[in-house]
What we know:
The complex is a heterodimer. Chain A is α+β, with helices and mostly antiparallel strands. Chain A has two domains: about 1-65 and about 80-110, no CATH class; about 115-265, Cupredoxins -  blue copper proteins (Immunoglobulin-like, Sandwich). Chain A has helices at about 1-20, 30-65, 80-110, 160-165, 245-265, and strands at about 115-125, 125-130, 170, 175, 180-185, 190-195, 200-205, 210-215, 220-225, 240-245. In chain A, α1 (about 1-20) packs antiparallel against α2 and α2 packs antiparallel against α3. Chain A starts with a helix and ends with a helix. Chain B is mainly α. Chain B has helices at about 15-20, 25-55, 65-70, 80-100, 100-115, 125-145, 175-205, 220-250, 275-310, 315-330, 345-370, 380-405, 405-410, 415-445, 450-480, 490-495, 500-530; strands at about 260, 265. Bound molecules: protoporphyrin IX containing FE (HEM) and copper (II) ion (2 copies). Protoporphyrin IX containing FE (HEM) binds near residues 46 and 484 of chain B.
Amino acid sequence: MPLAFIVWAFAIVIVYVFLARLWWFPPPINQHGIIYDQHFLSTLLVTGVIFFLAQLALGYVIVRYRDRGQRAVYSHGNNKLEVLWTSAAAVLFIGAVLASTRVYAGVHLGRPPENALRVEVLGKQFAWSFRYPGPDGKFGRTDIKLINDAGGNPFGLDDTDPAARDDIVTSALRVPVGTPVRLTLKSRDVIHNFFVRELRLKQDLVPGMEIPLVFQADKTGVYEIPCSELCGLGHHQMRSTLEVLTAEEFRRWEQAQVEQLRQLQQP
Amino acid sequence: MSSPVTHHAVHAAPKGFLRRYIFSTDHKVIGKQYYLLALFSVFVGMLLSVLMRYHMIYPDAKVSWFEKLWPTGAAGGIMTPELYLSLMTMHGTIMVFFVLTTAPQSGFGNYFLPLQIGAEDMAFPVINMLSFWTTFAALVVLLAAFFVPGGAPLSGWTAYPPLSAVGEIAGPGQGTGQTLWILSIALFCAASLMGAINFIATTIDLRAKGMTLMRMPLTCWAWFVTAILSLLGFAVLLAAGILLLLDRTAGTSFFLPAGLVVNDQILNHKGGSPLLWQHLFWFFGHPEVYIAILPGMGLTSTVLSVFARKPIFGYRAMVYAILAIGFLGFLVWGHHMFVSGMNPYTGIAFSVLTMAIGVPSAIKTFNWIGTLWGARIRFTTPMLFALGFVSLFVTGGISGIFLGQPALDLYLHDTYFVVGHFHMIMGVAAIFGIFAGTYYWFPKMYGRMMNETLGKIHFYLTFIGVYAIFTPMHFVGVAGNPRRYPNFKEFEFLGELLPVHTFMTHAAFFTAAAQLIFLFNFFWSMKKGAKAPVNPWEATTLEWTVPSPPPHDNFGGRLPEVYRGAYEYSVPGAEKDYLMQNEPAVAVKE
Ligand code: HEM
Ligand SMILES: [Cu+2]
Ligand SMILES: [Cu+2]
């Protein structure tokens, strides 16, 4: 008997916390994030109703059919009901997943726009590095033998390749607002995961693979990037930031980087 | 289908202590051995989880006995992040393999499958004994990982390569510790394969006269299908484990691609794929969660029916649902890999199949409610745990609908939402199944009743406790909290969630403490409990026709004959409100 009230109490508290959004997503900063939230909400709504009704029913039968000396009904079931709830569940579940396929396809099956800014993302235990192609628009040659983290060369850029000499390497991801960005995710040791909550995007970085990820941030600001695939003892410290700059700020920043590289490479 | 008569040789009870209690071939002794192994493991696993929860909210606390236990991992009494990760790995591994796979299937299944189908023993008693001792060896090897240089591995129970494949350079524990982990899992796989063959053969060949498949209790169906899942799943995990071992020790490259630079060292591997491990692992790993939960579902069905004094609602639908879950369970492993870099089209296919497997799970829930509808419920401790199981199963199932959609998984993957989800449905739901089984079958196993008052207190505290621990995990998951983080100091957004973690940690202390009540009740009742009658719950299945505890050959040399299904309660016109499966046709007053 008390069990019924506990079950109901939990159901109410859980529904309340989700409705009141006591803990919630940060506001989205891209179109995908907006669609994501809509889909999350509709899933929450449908499943929330099912959840609530199921717990309610459980509590109800506990109270209603406790032993008060009545005779239990002798019934082996009801085929009509079985068919009914089987098909209802099937329609609902499959419907949800088909509806969500649109959201997923929008991220992974679209073609990246031609004008997308290209950035390489490199994960290693336990740091992020980002590489921009620089003024020539080309990523230069790399060689793992040249990797030198302390010397600021986590990618192993090969300076004998002119295309590599102007590549910009940073430890934070800076992008201009409102511009499509095409990331290429790579890891050089173990699996890591690139996650920006505000973008509602998450993707593993797998050694031996180059995995594309396209997004466009529509709101300036600084957003944290927590590594989200266990990569070792520093996993929880593997942090970087996504800095969404105005077009002007981004241009100036890029220019400064190019300038700095030039000076460094003066004999 | 006709029921084959057993051709099983009758064996007399062995004499010496060793043959009787240690290297016994009696399925009942082996069942208890498995159960006690799981009981030991669950307390170790729980202790580790409490330490983890403590570290999360007090990462800098100095606790002198930490240092005694882990001189390097907690030098100066302060737990290091790597120690946290190794506790996490051991916690997950112990819980999944040595608790959830061991107690409901190998423990209860071994003890009660022969009794419920009317057999004298399992089909292959010697293999049965071997399989237990192999499991025991696996546990010893796993725990040994704590005591080798570098300590226990930190790559999680999923052991993804390259982290798990490149050795010590990837972190402490990734040397000998990880090797021991793989060996332990390989042994466990071998043991599970032996067990699976035994369960399958026993179910097919040793059913008593009249025990048709469709008269079997749902527990037997669950054990049977679970055994098939074990056979196919553990075979693949065993192979994968061997490949991983070769990558580590023989220089092969099954899971390691070219160009690896780990810890500033260039590795000489080429041609392998880290994703291959994930495919192999989850081909086992998803069925594994059903291995953990199916026996609990079977038992919940039975217990609900017994204490509702009503036939199970939709027996056939329940059987088909178990079979459907078993079959579909092998087609959904990719839902663990939506963000792994797998082809997105594959992801969509897996998501549709995943939602499809939700259907039989929903059917089970509906039928449980249907069973309770119109019932006359006796609130015994096993019944409370079965009802709790239903509630937890609903809660955990609902969050699965989120995670099964690749679109939503784009954010939720590897957050605490997942930790909350799998603890609800696989962790505590299955544990509730084990508790229900313990309170229900203890009288048969030990010949004494467990204390009901303590049982109920244990239930209520645990039920409230697990909701308090695992519900908030969903909330911080929605806020984006990654899992497998030893502490939350480095990120601004995680700092804001600390109060929730503090709450969960205290809930974990509370719940863990409540388990001492169970422990006390268990051992106290073994010695001091009231003597159990043959059929204390007025249930219908065959184990309740023999003395508590049953004699060595179960049915005293006369195998029972079965006349009806397992759930005949409140039959109109019958004298009592239940009809035993082996009662010959009784005069039913119309
Ligand atoms: C007192 C009860 C329990 C508590 C407080 C608890 C707590 C935790 C915590 C804190 C984690 C680590 C999360 C992370 O860092 O990502 C974890 C992981 C895990 N737990 Fe539990 N847990 C409990 C019971 C169980 C049970 C009954 C199971 C059985 C399935 C279980 C299975 C797992 C698994 C498989 C993992 C994942 C380990 C990994 O990431 O490799 N836990 N648990
Ligand atoms: Cu990481
Ligand atoms: Cu799965």
